[in-house]
């Protein structure tokens, strides 16, 4: 977080999942606005904090080392060109993910190809958290509604985030989308909580369901 310059944006919210490692205390001590989510899972965290977002553009940034802070100004400048969403792609041009293994690398490729084939996308990275998008499209694409997630989560007994569905519905709506290249370094601490089989199955089910269930 010290590498994220505060004058790059109008508001920074530290969204915490209920950590017990001193993150909350440190963030408050540094003067950051902190929100501790009530329901577990990325999507619920986003929904809970959305009313507190004052700007018209959201950047979702993971401060575990996977997202490179120095790319934030380039992300903002690209959005100023009139895009609805700009993705920091781990697979565009010479960009690479150092956090991928064989399984996650193949999974990200497969999911992105599926989104492109089924929903008319042109992505190189449909899954990544690191992206900027207009706040209004959360409502326009109904990302804040349970309907798009409930069946997948029930079938596979898991909780999923909204980035993949955002990629799908933005492509279906033919929004103006761009990507910029950005490496994904290894995380600097903590444990990866990726649930490969459950999340993979839930997202793939979601992609197939979207062919028939959302217009």
Describe the secondary structure blueprint for this structure.
Elements: E1 13-16, H1 23-29, E2 33-36, H2 42-49, E3 57-60, H3 72-79, E4 85-89, H4 102-119, E5 131-134, H5 136-140, H6 150-156, H7 163-172, E6 177-181, H8 196-213
Parallel strand pairs: 1-2, 4-6
Antiparallel strand pairs: 3-5, 4-5
Helix pairs in contact: 4-8, 6-8, 7-8
What series of H and E elements makes up the topology? EHEHEHEHEHHHEH
Rounded to an integer in angstroms, the radius of gyration calculated over CA atoms is 17 Å
How would you sum up the global shape? globular
Question: Which segments are poorly predicted (pLDDT under 50) over 5 or more consecutive residues?
Answer: none
Structural class: alpha/beta
Helix content: 25-40%
**Strand residues, percent:** 5-15%
Mean pLDDT: 93
Structure annotation, total helices: 8
Biggest β-sheet strands, sense, barrel: 4 strands, mixed
Strand order of the largest sheet: 3-5-4-6
Strand count? 6
Distance from N terminus to C terminus (CA atoms, Å) equals: 39 Å
Jot down its keywords:
4-stranded mixed sheet, 215 residues, alpha/beta, two-stranded parallel sheet, 38% helix, 8 helices, 12% strand
Quick overview of this protein structure:
With 215 residues, this protein is an alpha/beta fold. The protein contains eight helices and six strands; from the N terminus they run βαβαβαβαβαααβα.
Give structural notes.
With 215 residues, the chain is of the alpha/beta class. The protein contains eight helices and six strands, in the order βαβαβαβαβαααβα. Helix 4 (102-119) packs parallel to helix 8, helix 6 packs antiparallel against helix 8 (196-213) and helix 7 packs parallel to helix 8. The model has no long low-confidence stretch (mean pLDDT 93).
């Amino acid at each position: 977080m010290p590498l994220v310059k505060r004058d790059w944006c109008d508001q920074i919210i530290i969204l915490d999942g209920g950590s017990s490692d001193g993150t909350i205390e440190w963030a408050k001590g540094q003067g950051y606005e902190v929100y501790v989510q009530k329901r577990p899972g990325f999507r619920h965290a986003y929904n809970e904090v959305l009313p507190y977002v004052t700007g018209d553009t959201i950047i979702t940034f993971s401060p575990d080392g996977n997202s490179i802070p120095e790319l934030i100004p380039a992300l903002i400048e690209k959005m100023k060109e009139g895009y609805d969403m700009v993705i920091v792609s781990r697979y565009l041009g010479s960009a690479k993910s150092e956090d991928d293994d064989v399984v996650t690398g193949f999974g990200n490729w497969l999911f992105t190809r599926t989104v492109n084939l089924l929903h008319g996308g042109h992505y190189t990275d449909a899954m990544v958290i690191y992206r900027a998008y207009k706040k209004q499209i959360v409502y326009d694409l109904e990302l804040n509604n349970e309907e798009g997630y409930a069946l997948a989560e029930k079938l596979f007994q898991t909780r999923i985030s909204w980035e993949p569905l955002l990629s799908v519905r933005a492509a279906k709506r033919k929004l103006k989308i761009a990507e910029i290249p950005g490496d994904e370094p290894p995380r600097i601490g903590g444990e990866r909580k990726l649930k490969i089989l459950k999340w993979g199955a839930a997202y793939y089910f979601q992609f197939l369901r979207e062919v028939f269930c959302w217009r």
